[in-house]
Amino acid sequence: MEPYRIKVVEPIPVLTRDERTAAMRAAGYNPFNLNADQITIDLLSDSGTGALSAAQQAAAALGDETYAGARSYYRFRDAVASLTGFEHILPVHQGRAAERILFGALIAPGQLSVSNTHFDTTRANVHLSGGTAVDLPCPEAADLDSDTPFKGDIDLVALAEALEGPTEVAVVVMTITNNGGGGQPVSMANLEAAAAITRAHGVPFILDAARFAENAWLVIQREPGWSDKTPTEVARAAFDLADGAVASLKKDAIVHMGGFLALRDPDLATRCEAVLIATEGFRTYGGLAGRDLEMIAVGLEEVVQPDYLRARAGQAEHLASLIEKAGVSIVRPPGMHALYLNAGRLLSHLTPAQYPGHALACELYVAGGIRCAELGSLYLGVEDETGTLVKPAPYELVRLAIPRRTYTQSHLEYVAEVIAEIATSPESVPGQRLVSAPPLLRHFHCRTEPVAP
Ligand SMILES: Cc1ncc(COP(=O)(O)O)c(C=O)c1O
Questions:
Q1: Which residues of the chain register pLDDT less than 70?
Q2: Which of 26, 32, 58, 67 is flagged as catalytic?
Q3: What Pfam families does UniProt report for this protein, alphabetically (predicted)?
Q4: Has residue 427 been placed in a domain?
Q5: What CATH number does residue 92 fall under?
């Protein structure tokens, strides 16, 4: 059960099917174009969508909005330092700002950033720094159905080869958990080995630690030798392996805005701090209000509580089991922040060019007011100049991200019921075709329309 009770509630809209059909049409069949008042259950993102605790709200009232040297900064810094052990801690407004600042200081044009899987913004910031992002997920990640416990691991053989050259590697980034790779965790054994290989080549080893607590929990549950450790101890052991970390605190600090860049190297920190001041804000606020810094400090303590993490993992497992009982495949084993539906398998009557993942995301909205995002050929596929899909994505998935402390078990059971209803006649779900799409980040802006089944 959830280890909290509800003190403040927010009504959620429940539209009729006809209203949802009209809303989807008006949105150009793109869930990103829907408004909050049209959505019953929003599973688009787990980022910045969590519910604050009473303690966080109380801390916010103590927010010190002094421009330089605010008390709130020191509380934030101490919370991050005691969690991570890093000496130099820069607040930023969200994770991608930390990426931009760090990669700007680390990556020279032509160099590589190597990762288990770069998150989209991480990849974009590598490219903006003139580098190339290379993903080296472990081979087990390719089998969506297997229960291998750590499919978020990096391929150690491929990492060693990449570090040998010929192209220079500027940084190795381990994303924990691996959001781009199905939300799968990274084992401590893999982190230790990757850190050792990377160090041997004198290359900085950085964690993208947005979901550090969830990774720690899954290590405790799944990795031999770690079951008697606390989430704080596991998280600290991971940070101890790294030269620094970037983190979006909109996930595992359960706040609406915030991030950090934390480093050991004082010279690198000084260079990053100059860019921070120029682009985010003074080093003691970095684009955040004092009240944000206070809420982060409290959230970082709350997120490592075993009762909270157990309930969060339990929500994902419960939803996963109901979905599978309805005969719908997910990427296994279930992680914690999101479940990934195998839309390609469920809507096997559709070709990749009919965007089965996107079609399922549209249907989830029309059938039940559930909003979620496609991770398939609409997002990752490549078309030629005539608009014909020439390179489909490897998988046609739909991501159901689960906001922290926001929805109850019965909300998630409702989601499973809607999925089960769709699964009774999947062949009635129409495919989609592109009507208009900008060249960059098209999944955010494109418009599509249903094609007759
Ligand atoms: C693994 C990972 N890294 C970085 C980011 C970027 O963080 P932000 O959205 O705070 O800029 C995200 C956001 O979803 C993420 O999941």
A1: 453
A2: 67
A3: Beta_elim_lyase (PF01212)
A4: yes
A5: 3.40.640.10
